[in-house]
Design goal:
The complex is a heterodimer of chains A (247) and B (372). In chain A, 39% of the residues lie in helices and 24% in strands. In chain A, helix 4 (115-128) packs across helix 5 (144-156). Chain A is built from 9 helices and 10 strands. The longest helix of chain B has 37 residues, at 334-370. Chain B is mainly alpha-helical and 372 residues long. The two termini of chain B are 45 Å apart. In chain B, helix 6 (103-120) packs antiparallel against helix 7 (129-145). Classes of the chains: A alpha/beta (247), B mainly alpha (372). The A-B interface holds A 53-55, 74, 78-79, 81-82, 84-86, 88, 90, 92-96, 105-106, 109-110, 138-143, 151, 154-155, 158 and B 261, 263-264, 266-275, 277, 281-282, 285-286, 289, 367, 369-372.
Chain lengths: 247, 372
């Protein structure tokens, strides 16, 4: 293992019109590291992870993923996307395809995997997220928690080197949050590199190597969870924590 | 109605018992209120005035067969002269195609209708449709042109009637539809040049009537071409119709594309799918499905619009009807002739419309099955 970071952001900035979403962000994620990103809404958390796989283009700075610098070349972006899995807040499963087809689509077309192998892999992943019996159903027939687990399995089917989670439990009913977090904890134990935008502070405590706190487009604090939760360094972080842990 | 029925009807909400059902239906649908009852009575009166004379004319007093037009002339104003249609149906359906070879356009019609019917079956919706269409269209071409052993050559100036209408529609839609998808994708593309070209084309073509496009194709286009290059008239008309249909269909497809949530694009992107993989595997299957009703609507319109080729001297179904009326012996039977043409158009359009409705129901059921 080299010391090369899996994901490296240097002086990354992004504006949407007049709104400065990211202000010269620096962040390194080592292979196998788990990072939880939190912060008030509009702080740039989602923008940051969306930049990592090219769903948003950054205006300046450099983004390097697995040694490949993210530039405007579409081929490089596609190469990076194939290595980095992404899980969305709203699942974004393909409604016209069955669960199994959702999982095999990218391996078949992007990885050129033989169908039999892709289906075996898909079933193995569905076992891992504990819903193999749903393989033949359509996404609309599943509960939110099941859909999000399928979405995680779909991302894993590309055998990614890192996984990005953009508020994966925010759209779920409370009773379904745990089943999704359980799968993510399991994944973390297996050593996956993860960047998770979430407000689930319990998850951050158990899984994160570092908690990154963002506000107004800046990384305000980045520290291991005990430190961050025990002794936040800034007023902004203290205020945020009191707001989300206060009740 | 028997007396015991009324209590059942009055017991609102209870299930109708036997003979109560028709009465209840009448009351709910035709006599629900005073204005409703008046309208019902007015409509009945109109039907009573109009229907019997029409039935007399079209069926009871009609002349179905006659050796010549004299019998018809004698009955003029009393009954319809279907003998005219019986006499001229071959010409109306197949135009000036050599008489003894009429079986060829007849078979071609069957093949074309068969292709459409096969494409309508959902379980045949897969890649096999492509070779099926290729083979079907090739067979139609060979049948119509001939020039192979057993089939004498027939130049396409002699094609006409129903087969020409079907050919213009089928080739028109088969080529315009893929073109429309490309135009719709281009219109949404981020590349300014492609987007500009697509928007320009769509707006230009939609901004002029089909008739002017046909005139351009038949009169102006040859002026711009070098002297020795000639494109045949049928092909020119076909190209004009393809461009016209493509522009309209492109807007329908674009409507479907707009209904696909951004998350679908992002999920496909995040998996590393290329633009074409994303478009063909994720976006279009969903977008076209939503667009089925307006697509069929456009198809029906296009089928009827093919009748406009008559103004540039092609003999589609409506033109052959018109021409068949010019024979001195048979002038004056325009009502019968045009009713016949209308019936043929109606059969095709109604079939398309019914198919679209059944498909919508079927897809709605399938969608419901995909939800909990």
């Amino acid at each position: 293992m080299s010391a090369r970071p899996m994901i490296e952001l240097r002086k990354v900035s992004k504006r949407f019109g007049d709104f400065q979403a990211l202000k010269a962000i620096d962040l390194e994620v080592a292979p196998g590291e788990k990072i939880v990103v939190c912060g008030p809404s509009g702080s740039g958390k989602s923008t940051m992870i969306r930049i990592v796989n090219g769903l948003e283009r950054h205006d300046s700075g450099t983004v390097v993923v697995d040694g490949i610098e993210l530039r405007d070349d579409l081929r490089e972006i596609e190469a990076i996307r194939a290595e980095v899995g992404m899980v969305f807040q709203s699942f974004n499963l393909f409604p016209h395809l069955t669960v199994l087809q959702n999982l095999t689509l990218a391996p078949l077309w992007v990885r050129k995997m033989p169908r039999r192998q892709a289906e075996a892999l898909a079933m193995e992943l569905l076992e891992r997220v504990k819903i193999p019996e749903q393989a033949g159903k359509y996404p609309g027939q599943l509960s939110g928690g099941q859909q999000q687990r399928v979405a995680i399995a779909r991302a894993l089917a590309m055998r990614p080197k890192a996984m990005l989670f953009d508020e994966p439990t925010s759209a779920l009913d409370p009773e379904m949050i745990k089943e999704v977090l359980d799968v993510m904890v399991e994944l973390a134990r297996e050593g996956m590199t993860m960047v998770v935008v979430t407000h689930e502070m319990g998850f951050a405590r158990t899984v994160a190597d570092r908690v990154v706190f963002m506000d107004q487009g800046e990384i305000v604090e980045a520290a291991p969870p005990q430190e961050f939760f025990g002794a936040p360094q800034t007023d902004r972080a203290r205020l945020f924590l009191s707001q989300i842990l206060g009740h | 109605m028997s007396a015991p029925v009324h209590p059942v009807v009055n017991a609102a909400g209870s299930a109708p018992a036997g003979g109560a059902a028709p009465l209840r239906w009448l009351r709910a649908n035709l006599f629900a209120s005073w204005p409703n009852a008046l309208l019902t009575l007015a409509a009945l009166w109109l039907l009573w005035r109009a229907l019997p004379p029409f039935v007399d004319w079209a069926f009871l007093d009609a002349i179905w067969t006659a050796p010549d037009s004299k019998a018809c002339r004698a009955a003029a104003g009393e009954g319809a002269c279907w003998a005219f249609v019986a006499e001229k149906h071959r010409f109306i359906l197949f135009g000036t195609y050599p008489y003894e070879e009429h079986w060829r356009p007849a078979v071609a019609c069957v093949i074309l209708v068969g292709l459409w019917a096969a494409s309508g079956l959902r379980r045949l919706w897969n890649w096999r449709l492509v070779p099926l269409w290729a083979a079907g269209l090739a067979a139609v071409g060979v049948l119509m042109w001939g020039g192979v052993p057993g089939l004498p050559y027939v130049e396409n100036e002699r094609w006409g009637g129903l087969i020409l209408t079907l050919l213009l529609t089928t080739f028109g839609l088969a080529i315009a539809f893929p073109l429309a998808i490309l135009l719709a994708l281009g219109r949404r593309s981020g590349m300014p040049v492609i987007q500009g070209l697509c928007v320009g084309f769509i707006e230009l073509v939609r901004g002029v009537p089909l008739i002017s496009l046909l005139f351009m194709a038949s009169v102006m286009l040859p002026l711009f071409l070098p002297e020795r290059v000639t494109i045949d008239k049928l092909l020119r008309a076909q190209i004009a119709m393809i461009l016209f249909a493509a522009a309209y269909l492109a807007e329908v497809v674009r409507g479907g594309l707009q209904a696909i949530p951004r998350g679908q694009y992002e999920a496909a992107d995040a998996l590393g799918l290329s633009f074409w993989e994303k478009t063909l595997l994720v976006v279009l299957p969903q977008a076209l499905r939503i667009s089925i009703p307006p697509l069929v609507n456009t198809f029906i319109g296009f089928f009827k619009d093919t009748s406009l080729v008559l103004i540039i001297g092609l003999f589609d179904l409506l033109s052959t009807v018109k021409v068949s009326l010019t024979e001195p012996a048979w002038t004056g039977f325009g009502v019968e002739a045009y009713l016949f043409a209308a019936l043929v158009y109606f059969v095709f359009c109604f079939a398309m419309s019914r198919y679209s409705q059944s498909l919508e129901r079927e897809l709605a059921r399938a969608d419901a099955g995909r939800r909990r």
